[in-house]
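Dear Dr. K.,

Following up on our conversation at the group meeting, I've run the structure prediction for Nucleolar protein 11 from Glossina morsitans morsitans. I'm pasting the input sequence below exactly as I used it, so you can double-check it against your construct before we proceed with anything downstream. Let me know if the numbering doesn't match what you have in your notebook.
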Amino acid sequence: MTKFINYYNLCPIPEPKDFLGIAADKEKGNIITTLSKNIVIIITISTQKQVRSWSVVEKLSSKVVYDKRSEKYVGVFGNKTLRCWDESTADVNKSKKLRFHKNISELVTNEKDTFVLYDDGSFESLKTAIDTRKDCKQITSVPQHLQLVPDFNLSKGRIFTLPGGKQILTYFETNHTSGECHLVRLPLEDGNLRQRFPLKRGNLQTTVCGAAVIEGDGVPSLCTIWSDKRIFLLTLDDCAQPERSPGTFVSMLNHLKVDSSLSLLGLSGHSVAIYGANYGQKKESEGASLLLYNLQYKVIKVKQFFKVYFDFSKLWSIDNHILLALGQNLSVVQYRVSKELLSELVGTQVCNDYQTSVEGDQINEDDCIQDYLQYTTSIGKCTELEYVPKRTYHINEADGKSVAFIGVESFEKDLNHMRHINLHVDVRRASAASSDDQITLMSNHNDDGFTCRKIQIIASQMEKAGASEHEITEKLLWLLIKAELLSDIGVCLKRYTNISEKMLSKTLNFILKQFAITNPAIKDAASNETLILNGHRNSVMDIDINSEDKSEKDKKNKKKLHIPCSDRLAKEEGTLQTEIKDILNTLLSCNFDFTAIGNYIRQDIAYSEALILLEHLYNMLTDPDMTEFEERPSHDHTSVEFELQILRWFGVFLNTHFQKLALSKDVKLIEILLRWQELFIQYKHEIIELQETSALLYNIIQCKKLAEDRDYSKWYSIEQIHLF
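The predicted structure tokens came back this morning:
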């Protein structure tokens, strides 16, 4: 599952056109920011603090990099000279100038070395370039087309490693006069074996909106986005041929405008980051989006919306951070990529602007033409007889009259197959067929469906529309909290697995408040804070289903949904307390990220609610009647470890409320913490005993292995005895 954890501004950019770029520093978590042609700053991403900085008199022509071989910072000045300095250098202007005979385009680094890329397309390692800089002889042969036409710009140089260990250098070559763009691929062992891949699609009048080289599935690949919304992918292995450019068609990009500039960045594997203006906006300045697109499954994994679109935009990736230069700000988006399932990605490709039937037919027709063109060398050879469109077949549904229903034997066979794969299926027998009866397969056998019919309709419609679990839970949980529907909150937590940390925190806050209200002992023993649930006592409640944050314009035309309010008064107090505990335990069994949820817990959960949960977690560990969490769907298809999950929640609240817990003099808090301390001491003794048992078990196993490997003599044997 991929998530954007947080977004924040790192530092301002004085002049966007003078911003030269970002490179990784020698220390992990730091970046080298060439903020302008005269300023270099090293910043720690996590703390947003400036570590060190240098100002130079002579203007830089490319970004400053760190050379791991010499352990020095290297900068290019005026395309002709280099300066090298270390972190202790106070004045870079006093560093020695290294003048070259050829213009330097940029410096490209890998894990071990740094390479100098010249304007004529040749390259060499930094050490070799410094040693041979006074020689007029060129290290690698210069392409003839670059000798005749010097008006070329080389950019986005990167070094990739092929599966066999061979390394290649790739960069984009743009002709300022004609506007033509090529991708150059050449091995580091021999710069003469260069290949130029034209970014052109035959005679089609299309232009490239964004291009980048990504890591791919072990082999680097060229990813291009074109003005007709198409995404192409070309593998850059040793068998790659320039005639195959731009590669194979992947999918259509319908979420961003392609008539405005796009920024494309390869992250890891099949994932790319795309920044551009939102599709359907009347003005480009109204909004933009940052997408993480999966080229393998052809879906969008996560989105980040921006209120304003900037023509000037550049993307970099350092560790698990995406750095965006947007306008006059350098921003950071922290993301997390964990083990992915296809079920988590389904639905994330749904766009808010649905296509009309005409647009869909046009896309299908274009796809068919594109498939045909892959086998045709020229468009002129295409005739009406050769072009055969794809056929679609319509299958009539069974109605019991014109088309017979499935037989009993076939139904029993399918039913047994579903039971073999651990699907919980309820079969209801009816005397006559009814169009209102529906069969729904649930991933959780404890899922009985929502009690509120309107909530069930909303959930079904969102699932049919292809919405992801993350989007469904964001809307449903907020709606259920407003309506105070406890039982349906439990259903939502059981049904869906991909729940954001934000909604887990808000739902936990609501459940703890309900827990305090229904338990008078907790309510009376709590601190001076009054636990009041700001709920509605009416039988019916109006809820705005548009969004949680509403503008003045949206308030005039907002949609309302009439949902029955809390059924708390209709249930007995004891039954309600049991139900709240069960729902709380269901929430505690949900998967979460320790760091991400801490920021929301700190804001949403007050001291009094934290006290309630600490006591409840202790009771879950010590109560002999307390059973483990009920089995529910998980990302790894394994049940959650009961004790480990409880200790993780305890660690979250101990970190988020440490200051309040340390300063509080509440007697009840001291009692709870003392009980936790005794429990941990008991765990510590058990761990020590288990360590001793583990050591004995290890010795027994090792002795068994030695006895099996020992070759005994028939005449005598020698044994070594250790006297203690």
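Two things stood out to me. The chain has a mean pLDDT of 76. The two ends are 55 Å apart (CA to CA).

Best regards,
J.T.
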